[in-house]
Amino acid sequence: MEQKSFQDYYPDELNYCYGCGRLNEHGLQLKTYWDGDETVSVYTPKSYHTAIPGYVYGGLIASLIDCHGTGTAAAAAYRAENREMDTEPAFRFVTASLHVDYLNPTPLGTPLEIRGKVKEIKGRKVIVETTLSANGKICVRGQVIAVQMPEHMLKSNTTT
Amino acid sequence: MEQKSFQDYYPDELNYCYGCGRLNEHGLQLKTYWDGDETVSVYTPKSYHTAIPGYVYGGLIASLIDCHGTGTAAAAAYRAENREMDTEPAFRFVTASLHVDYLNPTPLGTPLEIRGKVKEIKGRKVIVETTLSANGKICVRGQVIAVQMPEHMLKSNTTT
């Protein structure tokens, strides 16, 4: 049986995110999985996701780190409660803060591996540290501070 | 005569950036202008640039801040030399570091105004502080540390 990604567990009505929503046909549809205590996503940019020719656009990289971070935060929150991701109540995180350091130019035309580690999980806040690598070389480091989505936002959108 | 944006001055061979390249037909084609000592871009997200329904995707916001920052850095570098943007040598900046604080959810369906100020310009480095507003309310604050593109990257791409 194929492993389901974190994003496959998001409630349908919250699964339209341009970066990782399974139901956003225009989006990137990033998929994230556990790999031991780390999380991993792999994404291959399109040819037009370019910055200068031959290199990946930094805004796309920021997007991958963002969605990898919120996905990791949700998965970590379930793990902290020893719950599976298909149990209630559903956890969904939004980004409070995003930081990206572009260490090396990221080559276009090869899959990018995004790996995350939970640095801190406390109350409604999860801090996720991320690397993005191409051909085994780390090109970018990122950090996402994710916070659990307020219930009123969740509810206002599930009732519309 | 219509004012030309910063990006309209980028050399053609470096004008394919997904965020702001005039020649990237799949991209966002952000345009940035001086407004006194500040810089301003306006972008209206597409309906599919959503995070959760009704709100703008954070990765898109990061992209807008990124390109607004590198564009502002280039324009500021010309101003520091009292040169017009159509004079040689051409300045083009890349992002070393990007920081975004999402203060309030950004509503979808309205133009977003991105405003930048140069916090520091020193050697090849320019630091740009940015706000992103919707309907006159600041939703996001960003900072870009931009560095002038190394000549060898510029040359290697203009000769291919």
What is the secondary structure topology, with strand pairs?
Two copies of one chain form a homodimer.
Chain A: E1 32-35, E2 38-43, H1 58-80, E3 93-102, E4 112-122, E5 125-134, E6 137-148, H2 151-158
Antiparallel strand pairs in A: 1-2, 2-4, 3-6, 4-5, 5-6
What would you note in describing this structure?
Two copies of one chain form a homodimer. By secondary structure, chain A is of the alpha+beta class. Chain A contains two helices and six strands; from the N terminus they run ββαββββα. The longest helix of chain A is centred in the middle third of the chain and has 23 residues, at 58-80. The A-B interface holds A 13-14, 16-19, 21, 24-27, 46, 48-54, 57-60, 62-64, 66-67, 92, 94-102, 105, 149, 153, 157, 160 and B 13-14, 16-19, 21, 24-27, 46, 48-54, 57-60, 62-64, 66-67, 92, 94-102, 105, 149, 153, 157, 160. β3 of chain A pairs antiparallel with β3 of chain B.
What is the count of DSSP helices of chain A, taking H or I runs of 4+ residues? 2
Q: Which strand order does the major sheet of chain A show?
A: 1-2-4-5-6-3
Distance between the termini of chain A: 34 Å
Q: How does the overall form of chain A come out from the CA principal axes?
A: globular
Radius of gyration of chain A: 15 Å
